[in-house]
Write a structure and sequence with these properties.
This protein is mainly β and 250 residues long. Helix content is 3%, strand content 50%.
Amino acid sequence: MLQADGDNLRLGRGEVYFDRFTTAGVSTGERFLGNVTALALSTSDEVTDKYSSVEASSPLLKSVKIRRTVEVTLTMDEFKFENIALALSGTVGSASQTSGTAVTKQFVGTKQGRTYSLDAFNVSNVVVKVAAATKVLNTDYRVDLNWGLIYIIEGGTIADAATVDVTFDKPSITAYKKMVGGDADIEGKLRYVSANAAGYNDMLVIPKVKITPEGETGFISDEFGSMTVKGKVLSVAGSDLYNLYRLTGD
């Protein structure tokens, strides 16, 4: 009598890499996605069926596959900018900030209980005035120096509809990351290298996949946040004799 083999059971673990292509389809190198808690590959076929018109029961004469779709789904835990961009169809870039001393910013028609941005980071020496009167920190306003935000305190002496003048210093920042989301077409190469808790190890390579968002990207939650993306596997002719994906193992 044949028996099941527990060594063939799978408890999957491993490393997932994604090589995001440029808009011209050029490789940028495989980037480790960090902690990926789920990775699945699915195949679905669309078929057309022909039934007999000769017999009353109309038995099936022929069933022909006309279209095959292969999809990959993965869930990421690490909120790197590049991962967020995959989940939100975004593009990651860089920006810089030039230094400035006694930079001025004016806000017209302000309102108590509202926050106003200086459009600068890591600011210092902040002075807030209405007309010639200097306002008092933590009595009339609060400031977030890191993000350059001014909050006008309710009940303070900065009245509604006032014109507020702010002066501040800002340092030079050569480069910081920014992400613009919404409309990027994302294609690239996916690689999974297993390190399974149970089962033999293998490597899955998908030479070209088009990534689309799937579900929510959680920023605030009582649980650890995660991001799920889905990708449609695209055919690549002549790619080392495999055109959808390749799975190799021990």
